[in-house]
Write a structure and sequence with these properties.
The protein is built from seven helices and five strands; from the N terminus they run βαβααββααβαα. The protein is mostly helical. The chain has a single domain (9-167), classed as Orthogonal Bundle (Arc Repressor Mutant, subunit A). The longest helix has 16 residues, at 81-96. The radius of gyration is 16 Å and the shape is globular.
Amino acid sequence: MENEYQAGYYCKQNFLKFIIADVGLFMPKQIFTSVDVEARTGIHRKKVGNALWHYKKVGIPYFRRLPKKDPNGLIRWKVTNSGEEAWKAYLMRIKRGFDLNRYSTKIKRMPTHDNFKFEKPKTLDDLRISSIPQERLADYLGLTKYGVEVLGLTQEDLFKVAVGLMDQQ
């Protein structure tokens, strides 16, 4: 998986929030930078940083910017309690095969909803992103026009991206 800013795919709905929270929750003291997210997921640090800044600007309370910067000058972030609750809700919705819009009155089912049986998490490993089948994770990724026309990506490439998200955790 390339670490280019325009990788040819995008995260649908709230999937990027889920991925960032997943990385942040399993970091020491839940403190992370955009480079930490890039190292664990392969999503470009600028894309992660822009998303975190956008969430702060529009008032989404899942991540809090810390006052002191990292020794290398990077902005540090922390997952808040509401961010942890949102992460749990997103994880359960992904495991059930539903969309990630928590406030919609109608629940939309993803294409792989009926392909996998839902099992309630019993251990800490069941709460990891690696416990989700790659086909189900690929439902939350989409191909951009640039990815299809210029890079020649297909749906199979989204499975590889999903595997990359799981393997680097």
